[in-house]
Predict the 3D structure of the following.
Amino acid sequence: MVETDMEWPWQYNFPPFFTLQPHPETRAKQVQAWKALILDYCKRCKLYLIDVREAGNIPLFNNTTINRKLQQDVIISLLHELQKTGHAAPVDKAKHRWEIYWHTLEEWASMVYDYISSQRMQGSVVTFYELSQGEDAQGEEFYEIHHEVLIKALQALEKERKCELILSDEDQGVKFF
């Protein structure tokens, strides 16, 4: 599915890492390591969406070298832990599909607004495409951001009255203030 030339942490090649540990202190460290690994992997691969039903097929949760795969219920519990810190959110009611935010929505929003400010684009209307795929946005952290994640980050800016979303059928963009 998603390949990377990522350097895996030592735990990734340690078979017990793929089994939730019973000792509370050990489990807490394991969960922290998994959370960091998930965010790092998703950032490196620009992976914004994880379907837990298929997650066992991606290298992140399936280390074929040591023949270990993280169980689906453990993946779900890790995603719930990421949700508590604003780094993940379920997309559907069944909680099969999850958005992953290696930056929280507020952090993404801040990056976008800093970019708009540095380009002196307040007062301008910008399409979502220009913002996430445009030539001027290349090199920005949010370049090629997932459409739905971008909208949620912009909604955070809208709450701060820094922009207004334009979401009609024919026009999709944002006006910055």
Summary: The first helix runs from residue 24 to 45. The beta strands are 49-51, 62-63, 68-69, 88-90, 97-100, 125-127, 163-167, 172-176.
